[in-house]
C-alpha cells in the first residue's frame, strides 16, 4: 500500500510498506539527542578481564595504597625515649600521619569501587551512565595523582626534619610509606590513561583499508559472506541480551546484508537478534555482473552468482527473521535503471515471502549521494532509519 510522506520531510517520492501489525507506519517525526546504549550482556570471561591493562594498573594502585596506610598505621606512631606518649614518626607532625593514612585508605576504597565498576561496566545499558562513570574514573584518578604528589612531598619534607635520635623503631616503614607514595603518583596517572573507554583496540585508517583491500583482492563472495556472518555471530555471542542488531549496507554492502538475513542460523546454533536492515541502492541479482569487468576480480561463475543472489536464495530459504525483522529498501531517483529495477523486484519478492518490508525511492539523489547525505539530520533516509531503530 502507498503511505503518505510528511511534507516536512523533503526528498521522498514514495514509501510503501507491507507486513501487517505494528511497525508498518513510518512516521518520520522524531526527537534529537543522545540515546541509551544497547544493553550488553556477554558471559564474564575472568581471564580476559584480568588481562585488561586498566585492571592490572588498578590492582597495583590498590596494593600501593595498602602498603602506605599499613606502614603508617602499623609503625607510624612511636614514643620518644623519655616519654610513653605516642606521636607521629614524621617529625611528630600528626597531620603528616593523618594525611598519609587518609589518602591511602580512600585510594584503596576507591580502587575497590572502580574495580567493581570494571566488572559490571559491560552490563550497563545506559550511555549516560557509562559516560559519567568513565568521567568519574578519569577525574578521580587525576585528582588522586595530585594528592599522592602532595603526600610524597609532605612526608619527605617531614621525614627530612625528623631527628634520628627520636626514631627507635619504624624507620623502614616510614621510608616505605614515602617510597610507595612516590610510586603511586605514576600508577594513578596510568590509571587515568586506562579508563574503560580505552579498553578496545582502535584500528587506524591504514589498518582498515588494508583489511578491506585484502578481502576484495584475495577473497571471493563466499569468503566475504562467511566473514560477515562470523562478525554477526560474534556480536550476538558477546552481547547476548542486546536489544537488537541493525544492519545497513550500500550497493554491494546491501547485497551482503541481504544474504546475512537469509542465512540458516540454525546451523550455527545461534540466531542473532537482528531487528532491522536498511538496504540502500543494493545489488540483489548477481547474474548481470558475471558478464562485466567487475567479475575480472570476483571470478564468479553463473552458479556462484545464483547461489549468492538474494533474489534466488529467497525462494529456497525460509528465514527465522521473516516476522521479527523490519526491512527498508531504499534507492535513489537518479540511480541507474538496473539498481532501480533490482530494488523494486527484491522489494516485491520479500513482500511475497511475508517479510515486513518498505520501499523508499528518494528524489533528487543518485547512487552515491543517497548514502553520503546520511550525515544530515533532516535527510529522509537518516530520519527513517533512526525512527525504525528507536520505535
From TrEMBL:
Location in or out of the cell: Membrane
Membrane-topology annotation of the record: Multi-pass membrane protein
GO cellular component term of the entry, any: neuromuscular junction
SUPFAM superfamilies referenced in this protein's UniProt entry, alphabetically: alpha/beta-Hydrolases
Transmembrane recorded as keyword: yes
Main location: membrane
Annotated stretches, region: Disordered: 1-23
Keyword Transmembrane helix among UniProt keywords: yes
Keywords: Membrane, Transmembrane, Transmembrane helix
Gene3D superfamilies named among the record's database cross-references: alpha/beta hydrolase (3.40.50.1820)
Transmembrane annotation, as ranges: 55-78, 98-121, 133-160
Occurrences of domain MARVEL (ranges): 49-200
InterPro entries assigned: AB_hydrolase_fold, Marvel, Synaptogyrin
Recorded family membership: Belongs to the synaptogyrin family.
Protein name: Synaptogyrin 2
Species per Swiss-Prot/TrEMBL record: Monodelphis domestica (Gray short-tailed opossum)
Lineage: Eukaryota, Metazoa, Chordata, Craniata, Vertebrata
Amino acid at each position: 500500500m502507498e503511505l503518505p510522506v510528511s511534507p516536512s520531510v523533503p526528498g521522498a517520492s514514495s514509501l510503501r510498506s507491507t507486513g501487517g501489525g505494528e511497525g508498518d507506519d513510518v512516521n518520520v517525526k522524531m526527537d534529537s539527542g543522545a540515546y541509551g546504549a544497547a544493553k550488553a550482556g556477554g558471559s564474564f570471561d575472568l581471564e580476559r578481564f584480568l588481562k585488561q591493562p586498566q585492571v592490572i594498573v588498578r590492582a597495583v594502585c590498590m596494593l600501593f595504597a595498602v602498603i602506605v596506610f599499613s606502614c603508617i598505621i602499623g609503625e607510624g606512631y612511636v614514643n620518644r625515649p623519655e616519654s610513653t606518649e605516642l606521636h607521629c614518626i614524621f617529625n611528630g607532625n600528626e597531620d603528616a600521619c593523618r594525611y598519609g593514612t587518609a589518602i591511602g585508605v580512600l585510594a584503596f576504597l576507591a580502587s575497590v569501587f572502580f574495580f567493581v565498576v570494571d566488572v559490571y561496566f559491560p552490563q550497563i545499558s545506559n550511555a549516560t551512565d557509562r559516560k559519567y562513570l568513565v568521567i568519574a574514573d578519569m577525574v578521580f584518578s587525576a585528582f588522586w595523582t595530585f594528592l599522592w604528589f602532595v603526600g610524597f612531598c609532605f612526608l619527605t619534607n617531614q621525614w627530612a626534619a625528623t631527628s634520628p635520635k627520636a626514631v627507635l623503631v619504624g624507620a623502614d616503614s616510614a621510608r616505605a610509606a614515602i617510597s610507595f607514595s612516590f610510586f603511586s603518583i605514576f600508577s594513578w596517572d596510568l590509571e587515568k590513561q586506562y579508563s574503560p573507554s580505552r579498553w578496545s583496540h582502535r584500528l587506524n585508517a591504514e589498518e582498515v583499508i588494508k583489511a578491506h583491500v585484502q578481502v576484495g583482492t584475495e577473497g571471493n563472495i563466499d569468503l566475504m559472506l562467511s566473514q560477515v556472518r562470523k562478525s554477526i555471530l560474534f556480536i550476538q555471542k558477546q552481547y547476548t541480551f542486546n536489544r537488537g542488531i541493525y544492519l545497513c549496507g550500500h550497493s554491494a554492502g546491501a547485497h551482503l546484508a541481504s544474504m546475512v538475513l537469509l542465512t540458516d542460523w540454525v546451523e550455527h546454533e545461534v540466531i542473532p537478534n537482528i531487528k532491522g536492515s536498511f538496504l540502500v541502492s543494493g545489488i540483489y541479482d548477481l547474474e548481470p555482473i558475471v558478464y562485466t569487468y567487475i567479475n575480472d576480480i570476483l571470478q564468479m561463475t553463473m552458479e556462484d552468482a545464483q547461489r549468492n543472489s538474494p533474489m534466488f536464495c529467497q525462494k529456497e530459504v525460509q528465514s527465522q527473521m521473516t516476522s521479527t525483522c523490519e526491512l527498508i529498501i531504499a534507492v535513489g531517483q537518479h540511480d541507474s535503471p538496473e539498481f532501480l529495477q533490482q530494488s523494486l523486484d527484491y522489494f516485491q519478492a520479500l513482500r511475497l515471502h511475508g517479510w515486513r518490508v518498505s520501499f523508499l525511492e528518494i528524489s533528487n539523489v543518485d547512487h552515491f549521494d543517497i548514502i553520503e547525505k546520511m550525515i544530515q539530520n533532516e535527510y529522509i533516509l537518516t530520519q527513517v532509519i533512526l525512527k525504525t531503530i528507536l520505535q
